[in-house]
Write a structure and sequence with these properties.
- The chain is of the alpha/beta class and 312 residues long.
- The chain has 9 helices and 14 strands.
- The chain has a 10-stranded mixed beta sheet with strand order 5-4-1-8-9-10-11-12-13-14, with helices on both faces. A 4-stranded mixed beta sheet has the order 3-2-6-7.
C-alpha cells in the first residue's frame, strides 16, 4: 500500500480582499468595482491547501495576528485537515492582507501587506520534530528570508527535501541554493535570478533552468503562463504545454501547480510526470474565482488531462 505523502508548508497566511473590476485604473483614474470578497489566501497557506487536496498529510508553520482574520485563516486550514499547531499568534501585528484587483480578462494586480508574516520566527526544535517524519518542506519568500534559510538547513540536516518558490523574488543567500531540491519559478523570477528573459520562449526557459541547476539546485521548473512550464533536471529539459481553458482568475494558479508537483514528487513520481499533474491542476484553478476556493482535489486533477510534453 502506498504511504501517504507528508509535507510541511512554511510560509505566509493572508486574508485576500478580492476586488473585481472591468479594468485596472490608470494613474489618477477612478473605476467602479463590481464586487469585493474576503477570501483565505497567502502563498504559504495556498500551497498547503493544494498539497492537502492532492492527498498529502500537511502541517502549516506561519504567523497570524490576534484578530478575526487570523482566526478565520486558521479555521479554514483546519477544515482542510491541515495541522495548524505550528501557526503562531502575534499579539501586536495584524494578520497579513493581500489586495487583489482582478480585471475582466482574469489578470490580477496584487498588493501584499505582510503584517504578522513579517514577524515569523522559526522554532527549530519544533521544525526538527516535524521534519523527522516528513517527506518534503515547502517554502516561499513571503516570510523573512533568514528564517527560510534556517529552515532549509534543518531540513537538509534531517534528509528532508526542500521545494522552494522564491516569490516575491529577491536575491537568494548563496548557501541556500544547494539546500533546495526543487526550485519552482515563474518567468519573472527566472529573469531576476539568471538574467535570461524566458517570457514566451521555452528554449530560454530551459537555459534558465540549466543556469539555476548550476547553482546547486537538483530540479528546476520555470512556469510560463499560457505556454505551460519547462522542467529541467539531470536528464535534460521538457516542455509541458498549458491546457487551453477559459481563464477567470489566475490567483493561486502557481501555488496550485506547486502543490500538485510536490505531492507527486513525494509519491515517487518523476519530475516530468509531476509537472504534467501540476499543469492539469493549474488549468482547473484558473477557471474559478478566488485563491483557495479555486484549488482542485486530486481526483479532479486526474480527470483533467494535460497536453503531451516534449523533450527540448
Amino acid at each position: 500500500m502506498q504511504v501517504q505523502p507528508k509535507v510541511v508548508c512554511l510560509g505566509s497566511l493572508n486574508m485576500d480582499l478580492l476586488i473585481q473590476v472591468q479594468h485596472a485604473p490608470a494613474d489618477g483614474e477612478t473605476v467602479v468595482g463590481q464586487s469585493i470578497q474576503y477570501v483565505p489566501g497567502g502563498k504559504g497557506a495556498n500551497q498547503a491547501v493544494s498539497c492537502a487536496r492532492q492527498g498529502s498529510c500537511v502541517s502549516m508553520l506561519g504567523r497570524v495576528g490576534a484578530d478575526s482574520h487570523g482566526t478565520t485563516l486558521r479555521n479554514s486550514l483546519s477544515q482542510e485537515g491541515i495541522s495548524v499547531d505550528g501557526i503562531d499568534i502575534d499579539p501586536s501585528e495584524p494578520t497579513g492582507i493581500a489586495l487583489v484587483l482582478l480585471d475582466e480578462h482574469g489578470n490580477n494586480r496584487i498588493v501584499v501587506i505582510a503584517g504578522a508574516n513579517g514577524k515569523f520566527h522559526l522554532d527549530e526544535n519544533q521544525l526538527s520534530e516535524q521534519l523527522s517524519q516528513e517527506h518534503y518542506l515547502v517554502m516561499q519568500f513571503e516570510v523573512p528570508i533568514d528564517q527560510v534559510l534556517q529552515a532549509a538547513k534543518v531540513a537538509h540536516k534531517l534528509g528532508c527535501k526542500v521545494v522552494l518558490n522564491p516569490s516575491p523574488v529577491k536575491s537568494m543567500p548563496q548557501e541556500l541554493w544547494s539546500l533546495v531540491d526543487t526550485l519552482i519559478v515563474n518567468e519573472t523570477e527566472a529573469h531576476f535570478l539568471t538574467g535570461l528573459c524566458a517570457h514566451a520562449d521555452v528554449h530560454l526557459a530551459a537555459e534558465a533552468g540549466r543556469c539555476l541547476r548550476a547553482k546547486g539546485v537538483s530540479n528546476v521548473v520555470v512556469t510560463l503562463g499560457a505556454l505551460g512550464a519547462v522542467a529541467t533536471d539531470a536528464a535534460g529539459s521538457t516542455h509541458h504545454p498549458a491546457t487551453k481553458v477559459p481563464v477567470l482568475d489566475t490567483t493561486a494558479a502557481g501555488d496550485t501547480f506547486l502543490g500538485a508537483v510536490t505531492v507527486a514528487l513525494a509519491s515517487k513520481q518523476s519530475l516530468t510526470d509531476s509537472v504534467a499533474l501540476g499543469i492539469s491542476a493549474a488549468a482547473l484553478c484558473v477557471q474559478h474565482l478566488g485563491a483557495q476556493p479555486s484549488i482542485p482535489t486530486h481526483a479532479q486533477t486526474l480527470a483533467c488531462s494535460a497536453p503531451p510534453w516534449r523533450v527540448i
